[in-house]
Structures are given as C-alpha cells and as structure tokens.
C-alpha cells in the first residue's frame, strides 16, 4: 500500500472532561449539564423528550459522570499510557464549570485553571500536543436553570469571558482549539449541545436554531480572540458528520437524502467556514416557520470569525427514504434514517461503514478546501476480561483498521487530513447511554454500571495494535 500518511500526521485519542474526570464537586467546580444526566437507558429518553427538570434524584437514578473514570486524580498515569502508545496529540475538553462554577461570575476559579495547567504540563512532558475543546456538552448548570441555556443571548458574553481567560492562561501551552463539540447535533439533541430541554416538540426547531445562532456568534468571537491572543493558534470547528445516502435510485429519495444531508452536514459547516448562512437554509426556515433574531453586527462577526480547520466525529453514515415505515427505521442510528441493508451494526445498533468515512472526507474537503481532522471515531462494545487479565478486542481493531484504511484512501484522493484522535482512548462514561459497559478505550478501566470496580487501568490488545499503527505512521495495520 505504501506510505499514505504525512510525516507530521497527528495520531492520538480523544475524551471529554465530563466523561473521564469525575471529581464533580472538587477543586471548586460547579455542577454542569452532565452532572444531572442519569446513567443507563433512561438517558436517551430524557435527552429527546421535552421537559427535563435538571434535578439530581439519587433515589431513582445513578450518576456515573460524578465519578467517571477519575482522570482528575489519575491523569499522570493515564497520560503516561497515552505516551506509551506514542500519541502525538490528545484531544480533551475543559469543563467550563471548573473555570466558572456558575458560568456568569466575573472572576475565574484559580483551582480549576491550575488543574489544567498541570494536565498540559504533563502532556508536554511526554511530547503530546493538547487539542482542546472549549465546550463539550458541559454547560454550567446555573446557566441552564437561570438563563435557559443557549436560547438566551446572554450566554455569548459569558462564553467570551470564559474563552478570554483560557486563551490568556494557556497561550504558551495550547495551540489547537475547537469551539463547540458536534455543534450541528444541537437540533437533534438540544439538551446536549445547547443546554436546554425544548419547551415542546412544536417549539424545538425554533428554539434550537436560535440557540445555534448564538453559538455561531460565540464561536466567531472565540476565533477572533484566539487569533489576537495566540497568533500561532489553529482554531477549528467540530461537526458530527454522517454522509447521507439515498435508499435507492428513486429521484424522490435522492432529493430527500440531499436535503436531509446538507441540512445536517453542511449548514453549520458553511456558517463556520464560509462565514455566512447558506442559501438553502432560508427555504428551510421559511417552510418551518423559523425566524432567527439577530443583532445588526452578528453576520459581520460570523464573517470575520471563520475557522482555520474542520474537525469532525464519524461513527456512522445515514440512509434516507422519503416515505418510510416504522420497521424500516434504523434503531441505533442517532440521527434518523432507515436501515442500510448493506451494513452490519454494533452492539448498540450503530451501523458500521468505513467507506462512509472516505465519503465524508471527500465531501468536506471538496466543499471547503480546509485542513481536516477526524477527532472522534471508535467502537462502543462489551469487553470481556479473560482469566489471565487480557482483553482480546479484535472487533475494535477490525473496526479501527477499516476506518484508518479509509482515511489513507482519502489522502490518496487528495484530501488534506492532518490528524486522527480515536474516541475514548481510555474507557469512559458513554455520552448517549451513561454506561461504563459501552467501552471504547485501548485502556480498560475496572469500573462497572453497578458502581463497582477498582478503577485499575489495563492494556487491551488494541493498545498494542494502535501503538504499532502510530509507530509505523499508519503503514502497519
């Protein structure tokens, strides 16, 4: 196959603060959205239905994010394991409520800032570049309860204060930044991305697109600030990407797939990268009765704050059919669509489609001609610890191998791909299901859905495989 990945390719792994750190009330941290989301199957129901109350009810539910996998206390051990695999980059997020416990204070929490100083120093000690997500489903709870989350324009100013503190504090330690995690997922899961539960199903779209507009402005302000405070910084957007296929060659289905695909995959990207609302969105707004309230300078701000690169998560493709019956709907596909008869699915019903990643990379690069980074891609699966302590996760290796091969093909296609951070390089609390048992890591963490476990770390078979992949710059798969 020969050499495909560039010499300076950024290999690594990715996590989010709320899924690994734990220590939910230590170090002056305030509660955030993830702290009130219960674990288990009930989580998805709460995420998608209006009227979630943002209260902690320990008599009824468990809250695994409070403890997560205790990265807060074990970050040195974990970073040493990342270094052993050869990571060039580690994608992580900063918990907003560690820096501003309520989100609307004027002065940041020094203990929170000092924690991330220690993490960045530890990464640099091992030659690992931090890639930092500024907002990864971690809206401070006070901003949700008091202000209604991102529906409220006031959050733009609070976010600006937060990013200004981050850029000034870490300007010598962090070069790569991402503004909002999976920003385009907000219309599907406003609770995650926008920090509110829709008033009703009827108001969901209006509220979500208004909240998104506030995030677009906030993101653009962050990009402009970052370039001023850290001139050599690279600031990207982060999308959830699912190439959208027509179920068959019926033109009705082809057109439906085009409409669904561009709304989901390209709307947010166009705003972030081109600095303007795309032409197609105006018809969609008109047909759905959506009216975005803007201030006069908003569009100018968005135009001036375009990103340097595009990062995205890729887990699955999506297959669309205009008229579908209930039994055709893909059960595990988080973003709609019908079952694809050509694809197998994971234990959680997520369809596995490595070629879709090559499609995604070609679509994104063809549209924007900006450097790309795949910052989430991985397989959530049940892992079994053998009697000798080993974990033979060949299914994970097969999954990742296929996707890395697809990236190599995309590079051959001429795509400018600069990095890959596989999701959940260490086991963590799943965002969608709040489970420990949905494992993604190369590193096993002895922690279970019933709360038991020692938190001990151990290397899975995939750990050694990924080490070889990085060491050979993608030639040994």
Structure description:
The chain is of the alpha/beta class and 477 residues long. The chain has a single domain, classed as TIM Barrel (Alpha-Beta Barrel), CATH 3.20.20.80. It is built from 15 helices and 12 strands. The chain has helices at residues 17-20, 42-48, 71-85, 96-99, 110-125, 141-147, 154-170, 190-194, 204-229, 251-274, 279-287, 298-304, 354-368, 394-412, 461-471, and strands at residues 10-14, 89-93, 129-135, 176-180, 234-240, 244-246, 309-313, 318-320, 372-376, 417-423, 443-445, 457-459. It has an 8-stranded parallel beta barrel with strand order 1-2-3-4-5-7-9-10, surrounded by 5 helices. The protein has a two-stranded parallel sheet with strand order 6-8. A two-stranded antiparallel ribbon has the order 11-12. Helix 14 (394-412) links the parallel strand 9 (372-376) and strand 10. Helix 3 packs parallel to helix 5 (110-125). The model has no long low-confidence stretch (mean pLDDT 96). InterPro entries: GH (IPR017853), GH_1_N_CS (IPR033132), Glyco_hydro_1 (IPR001360). Keywords: Glycosidase, Hydrolase. Belongs to the glycosyl hydrolase 1 family. This is 6-phospho-beta-glucosidase. It comes from Sinobaca qinghaiensis.
Structure summarized in a few sentences:
With 477 residues, the chain is of the alpha/beta class. The protein contains 15 helices and twelve strands.
Layout of helices and strands:
Elements: E1 10-14, H1 17-20, H2 42-48, H3 71-85, E2 89-93, H4 96-99, H5 110-125, E3 129-135, H6 141-147, H7 154-170, E4 176-180, H8 190-194, H9 204-229, E5 234-240, E6 244-246, H10 251-274, H11 279-287, H12 298-304, E7 309-313, E8 318-320, H13 354-368, E9 372-376, H14 394-412, E10 417-423, E11 443-445, E12 457-459, H15 461-471
Parallel strand pairs: 1-2, 1-10, 2-3, 3-4, 4-5, 5-7, 6-8, 7-9, 9-10
Antiparallel strand pairs: 11-12
